[in-house]
Amino acid sequence: MSQEKHIDDLLSRSIFQILPSKEKLKEVLLSGKKLRIYVGADATGPQLHIGHATNFMLLEKLRQLGHEVIVLFGDFTAMLGDPTDKSSARKQLSRDEVNANISTWKEQVSKVLDFSDAKNPAIIQQNSEWLSGMDLSNVVNLASHFTVQQMLERDMFEKRMEEGKPIHLHEFLYPLLQGYDSVALDVDIEMGGSDQIFNMLAGRTLQKAFHAKEKFVIATTLLENPLTGKKLMSKSEGGFVALNDVPNDMFGKIMALPDEVIRSVFIDCTYLSLEEIEAVLKSENPRDAKLRLGREIVTIYHGEEAARAAEEYFVATFSKHEIPTDIREVKLPGEMSLLDFLVQEGFAASKAEARRKVEQGGVEIDGEKVLDWGLILTKQEKPAIIKCGKKDFARVVF
Predict the structure, then answer these.
(1) Do residue 47 and residue 176 come from a single domain?
(2) How far is CA 370 from CA 44, 222, 364, 373, in A?
(3) C-alpha dist (Å) from residue 207 to 183, 322, 378
(4) What's this model's pTM, rounded to 2 decimal places?
(5) Quick check: 221 and 54 in contact, CB under 8 A?
(6) In this structure, what CATH number is given to the domain that contains residue 195?
(7) Phi–psi pair at 299, nearest 5 degrees
């Protein structure tokens, strides 16, 4: 494949928009100039998901072309809170919460980005390095490059104003500080999801002001359900597939995704070529296509052997026993009696009713009937599938 064809492919897959233009970026990439490129993620939680990995996978392809790539852990901006796509202010996190969140991030990202390459390793930085030392005069200087009208153009702020909801002053500061990351890193390109375009353009404005330098913005596609418009990788809306999920959980979550999102997850979250993806979708039914998707994604993060084992577990546990794939997951912090669990999760109205259901053979764990109503649910390595009656299921994770 020629370099031009390779770059054309790279700038076509999982791309929502390129600013100022795809043509100008292609010209720079073909020039042979080594570019500095970064992707940022705020440390608002301990897990990254396969939607984040869309950017990391594209970043790795650019690294392999010889460019300098940076993953920025937004430890300072996480304490402020990004208002993007939020109908209310985000919760502000403490320093300890942020540090706990990013403790395993490098390990998670290293599944798709090479931090150990001898000649050109990917780099990790944290924006507290420059943002925590700012004084008020620095913040005022940043603010002088923007107007209140510009800030109010953000969709979520317009919506809040229409609904009479508050907009906190500190939320205006967020795009300024994320924008300054581009200045501090002195990057040529910033990459992020399409919901980050406003923030990334703030960085473009500041790069021009501070360094008289053009900064390209690559906005990647978000994983969304085309029928509902809802984000897939949302803990509140379901479908969250974490990079550090164990193989069985990861595979099961992929199989639980709705059929209409299979194509986009193949494109944004796997290494299969577009031609291979179309062949899979054309020749296989949705269930078999999802099995292939599950294998591809688990292989990326856990290897081929783990992917095969996860598929075998899924087929044996779910398909043969007719267990639905979209059952709810219940996380238990420690031991719990089976009766308490059944009442807590609404499988029974009281302990007496729960006991009757057990004694009558109406409760199963991993396909086996449970007749001991005094059973204690204890920690185990893999999730337990609990069935009560014919239709009530729960996946129990400790």
Answers:
(1) yes
(2) 40, 43, 5, 8
(3) 5, 56, 55
(4) 0.80
(5) yes
(6) 3.40.50.620
(7) -60, -40
